Automatic annotation (TrEMBL):
Subcellular compartments: Membrane
Chain segments annotated as transmembrane: 20-44, 50-66, 73-93, 99-120, 132-150, 170-195, 216-235, 268-292, 304-327, 339-357, 364-381, 401-429
SUPFAM superfamilies with a match to the protein in the record: SpoIIaa-like (SSF52091)
Lipid bilayer topology: Multi-pass membrane protein
Residue ranges constituting the STAS domain according to the UniProt record: 452-565
Domain of life: Bacteria
Name of the protein this chain belongs to: Sulfate permease, SulP family
Alphabetically ordered keywords of this record: Membrane, Transmembrane, Transmembrane helix
Keyword Membrane found: yes
GO molecular function, one term: secondary active sulfate transmembrane transporter activity
CC terms in the record's Gene Ontology section: membrane
PROSITE patterns per the UniProt record, alphabetical: SLC26A, STAS
Species classification: Bacteria, Pseudomonadati, Pseudomonadota, Alphaproteobacteria, Sphingomonadales
Length: 585
């Protein structure tokens, strides 16, 4: 029972020296990658860079205790950082104590919400966000994030809460570009792009084994940090207008207290909920993908608790909302991490960096951090999905494009809400108009298929309709109208068979429509029959008066129903040569 809520008790029982070695090696590699990333994402969130380090220590420790993924690396991520900036910026100005307090409070609210949802076993809520909505949101967020960092590459002052405002602000200030900042930012960006694709092959040509080359290439951001710091010092670029990180507080994360101001909480709870859902979906997607590669499993409900504990820990240690990151988790996986202890060791590495390395980052150009962010988030921008969705599903395409458009124009919060809203509306529309088909028997078989797709046998006085959806209040009236319209088109009709093989449920409204259809057909001298009704559905129908009032029969199979009612006029189905003469078989 304890292991269910404390997964560390499960994997900790088998922990040994070999696993320790693998986890320590992975921790070293992830730490090297995470230091520049944490600084950069804090910058993206509008916070002092050191806050990114704070958010990368205690959350990792708490996830190691409560999380179920063996390789997920928790910490600041781009999308959640952008959402934090949007939410905190709505209540306070960047750079103020109130802004930092809002970010810390967001982490606390998010953590509490995630933990409560986990205790309530509400992991299924992640299903409210469809893949097209998530994909559209991440793509739009990637564009927004990359655009927001261009000002740091150019060394200009620009702002904006949405994409048009950002572009307008950049265009207005382009004449103030600092050439020295540009000379740092452009090479750093190009180098980091090359590192992602070209560093590994180049290192392999130099004789490094594939795994070693891959791990070395992952340290590319650190190389960019070191080289640009050297350039700043060598050419005294700080005096030439290049913005630097400056003094970073040295030491371990301080104890922080989230705000208890109810008015602030009232303003932040909706953004905190959105951050929680988006962060959880992103984290679980990464965790499930990596777990599947090793034939492991994760528990979504416990993941909610693990992420909740991580965010609460981030709040009390001066951090901001965190979640499982794709890039660092993949690096953790590839580096050979075998348990969440690798994350705890990474936290130790980040803590040591906070204690001893922060003075070395004084001359780090902000343009380098911006380049790190741009290269990271542009990999999230997916320009192929819209075309694929257009060809496959126009409804999903609409949800995807609506999410992208509204996120770019109105901001991240409205983008998520709009995407979910459009997705739900399209689902309700599809559910209100389910697929149904008139079917006939495939010659020399017991199978029934759509008359518009296959050459099948039918008889004039029998109408067989296959319903491919549960009968609920959303589509009950539609079914009633559909059946009665088909009956009205066939004056010779004497029997209607509803093939219910795909009907998993009939709610009260669906039952009422079936009763109405039964009475209307009975008044017209037409029998209503049901076939292939599933057991749970039949159990519920038996608790009503519908079966007693049904003017036809309930058949075990569609073939049996068709065979019996087609003989009603004394004419049995034609022999096989009937089909041969018409070229049907």
């Amino acid at each position: 029972m304890l292991a269910r809520y404390f997964p560390i008790l499960e994997w900790g029982r088998t922990y040994n020296r070999s696993v320790l070695t693998s986890d320590l090696m992975a921790a070293v590699i992830v730490t090297i990658m995470l230091i520049p990333q944490s600084l950069a994402y804090a910058l993206l969130a509008g916070l002092p860079p050191v806050v990114g380090l704070y958010a990368s220590i205690m959350p990792l420790v708490l996830y190691a205790i409560f999380g179920t993924s063996r390789t997920l690396a928790v910490g600041p991520v781009a999308v959640v950082s952008l959402m934090t900036a949007s939410a905190a910026g709505a209540v306070a100005a960047q750079g103020t104590a109130e802004y930092l307090e809002a970010a810390i409070t967001l982490a606390m609210l998010s953590g509490v919400m995630l933990a409560i949802l986990g205790l309530l076993r509400a992991g299924f809520l992640a299903n409210l966000l469809s893949h097209p909505v998530i994909s559209g949101f991440i793509t739009a967020s990637g564009i927004l994030i990359a655009t927001s960092q261009l000002k740091h590459i150019l060394g200009i002052r620009a702002g904006g809460d949405n994409w048009p405002d950002m572009l307008g602000s950049l265009a207005a200030a382009i004449g103030e570009t600092n050439v020295w900042t540009l000379a740092i930012g452009i090479p750093a960006t190009l180098f980091l792009f090359w590192v992602r694709k070209g560093a590994k092959p180049a290192l392999q040509k130099m004789g490094l084994p594939p795994r070693a080359a891959d791990m070395t290439a992952k340290a590319g951001p650190v190389v960019a940090v070191v080289l640009t710091i050297i350039a700043v010092i060598a050419f005294d670029l700080g005096e030439k207008g290049v913005n630097l990180v400056g003094a970073i507080p040295q030491g371990l994360p301080p104890f922080a207290m989230p705000s208890t101001d109810l008015s602030l909480i009232e303003q932040l709870w909706v953004p905190a909920l959105l951050i929680s859902i988006i962060g959880f979906v992103e984290s679980v997607s990464v965790a499930q993908t990596l777990a599947a590669k090793r034939r492991q499993r994760i528990a979504p409900d416990q993941e909610l608790i693990g992420l909740g504990a991580s965010n609460i820990a981030s709040a009390f240690s001066g951090g901001y909302p965190v979640t499982g990151g794709f890039a660092r988790s993949v690096v953790n996986f590839d580096a050979g991490a075998e348990t969440p202890a690798a994350g705890a060791f990474t936290a130790v590495g980040i803590a040591l960096a906070s204690l001893f390395l922060t003075p070395l980052l004084f001359s780090l150009p902000i343009a380098t951090l911006a380049a790190t962010i741009i290269v990271a988030v542009l990999s999230l921008v997916d320009l192929r999905t819209p075309g694929q969705l257009w060809r496959y599903s126009k409804a999903d395409f609409a949800a995807h494009i609506a999410t992208i458009g509204i996120t770019l124009v109105a901001g991240v919060e409205l983008g998520v809400i709009a995407g979910v809203g459009v997705g739900l509306l399209l689902y309700l529309w599809r559910a209100s108009r389910p697929h149904a088909a008139i079917v006939g028997r495939v010659p020399e078989t017991e199978h029934f298929r759509n008359v518009e797709r296959h050459k099948v046998f039918t008889v004039p006085h029998v109408l067989s309709i296959r319903i491919d959806e549960a009968l609920t209040y959303l589509n009950a009236r539609w079914l009633e109208e559909y059946v009665l319209e088909r009956v009205a088109e066939r004056p010779e009709l004497r029997h209607v068979i509803l093939m219910c093989s795909a009907v998993n449920e009939i709610d009260a409204s669906g039952l009422e429509s079936l009763e109405a259809i039964n009475h209307r057909l009975g008044d017209s001298g037409v029998g209503l029959h049901l076939s292939e009704v599933k057991g749970p559905v039949m159990d519920r129908l038996k608790r009503t008066h519908f079966l007693e009032e049904l003017n036809g029969k309930v058949f075990l199979s569609q073939d049996r129903a068709f065979a019996e009612v087609s003989k009603d006029d004394g004419t049995p189905p034609p022999p096989v040569d009937h089909y041969l003469a018409r070229g049907m078989i």
